[in-house]
Amino acid sequence: MSAGVVIIGGGQAGLQVATSLRQGGYGEAIRIIGAEPYAPYQRPPLSKAVLSGEAGVDTVPLRGQVFFTDNRLDLVTGRRVEAIDPGSKTVTAGADTIAYDHLIIATGADVRKIPVPGADLPGVLYLRGLDDALKLKEALTTPRNVVVIGGGFIGLEVAASATKLGSSAVVVEALPRVLARSTAPAMADAIVRRHTEKGVKIMTGAGVARIEGEGKVSAVVLSDGTTLAADLVVVGIGVVPAAGIAKAAGIDTDHGIVVDPLLRTSAPDVFAIGDVARFPTRFAPRPVMVESVQNAIDQGKAVAATILGKGAAYDAVPWFWSDQFDMKLQTTGLAFDIDETVVRGDADSLAFSVFQLKGGRVIAVDSLNKPADHMIGRRLVAAGAQLRTEDLADPSYDLKRAAMADAPRR
After folding, report:
1. Which end of the chain is more exposed for a tag (fewer CB within 10 A), N or C?
2. Could you tell me the CATH superfamily of domain 335-404?
3. Which of 260, 241, 290 lies closest to 110 in space, CA to CA?
4. What superfamily would CATH give domain 5-110+239-307?
């Protein structure tokens, strides 16, 4: 008797595997085991529309209960898988030992905790899951002095949402600029200008020495001695892949679960996808982890295809987005070893793009309020297009035609 598929992780990636398997005609049992007490839900709105009050919590579930019933998906919530035994092809969850034919690890990532004195004070919050968002939303019902530690997507989105709700926000970033790992300098500069116009204070090159308070947080003290008043601190300094369960089972890990081009781990019939997987890709010089909805969905589809006997090397173009105030930032590609950048449009406006090149080829594109550029950019990155810099910089040049056809050589 077939044991079917077991999916560890009740997020976007895990649900996508299950959905694609059923759509592809898989008839065996599918069990999704999630540690959170909720059915699979969308994470991106938590720091954006949900936190700012523009959307309710009822908008985040990915599927209603009837979907799981109709598709014979056994969804187990509020349950943590403690161990994997690749030899016997079983997992342990509480008192239960569950067999599998194929196992998908989609455990995602956990927030990175800030290792400074005072980090455990009441009023120091993180934002990763729905419970975190509900707690932070409740805290922001009263205007506050908010210090956000970390100038990445999450930190800037929280600062924007808090400001919309009437709070005063300061963003503290240890690196020389915000979004240093995800966008080009010209794009980061434009985003900082807009935040500043909206009243957000952004401090870069600023380390945190400690968090102070008597019974609850009252201040953040920086490495140079600067003291920032704070009755709410939100820490957004990145994530740590939840790979411990795989490592304990003897599965190869390297700051994430190591997978091959088919997203297979070192254990037979065990896959890893989403934020926890470190995978090879032609869009980067070394294996990477990509934390995005796109990656979770596309990897879920890819693993389902492999289980169904139609597998191919994972080759999706990475892309991301972030909503902050009246800005929609969209990025595509992975900006490794860039040697040239080209700004298309007015960088002083809220509508332009930055093309990032390596060896003359377009390998990443950042677009601000330019959705057409983003869609074209995904084509150009996928093709490794080689375009003249003067054409990229010219807003009148027809990029769509270039993307549809063979890109002209420089």
Report:
1. N
2. FAD/NAD-linked reductase, C-terminal dimerisation domain (3.30.390.30)
3. 241
4. FAD/NAD(P)-binding domain (3.50.50.60)
Taking the C-alpha atoms of residue 343 and residue 228, their distance in angstroms, rounded to an integer, is: 36
Q: What is the pLDDT of residue 409?
A: 44
The residue length of the chain stands at 410
pTM summary value:
0.95
Query: What single-letter amino acid sits at 212?
Result: E
Q: Phi/psi at 33 (nearest 5 deg)?
A: -115, 115
| Backbone torsions φ then ψ of 265, nearest 5 degrees | -85, -175
All residue ranges of the chain with pLDDT < 50 are 407-410
Burial pattern 40-70, b for ≥16 Cβ within 10 A else e, equals bbbbbbbbbbbbbeeeeeeebeebeeebbee
Residue 41 and residue 11: Cα distance in Å, rounded?
Answer: 6
d(CA 30, CA 39): 15
Q: In CATH, which superfamily holds the domain spanning 113-235?
A: FAD/NAD(P)-binding domain (3.50.50.60)
Pairwise CA distance, residues 77 & 217, whole Å: 33
Please tell me the distance from the alpha carbon of residue 259 to that of residue 249, in angstroms, as a whole number: 15
Contact 231, 123 (CB under 8 A): yes
At residue 17, the pLDDT reads 98
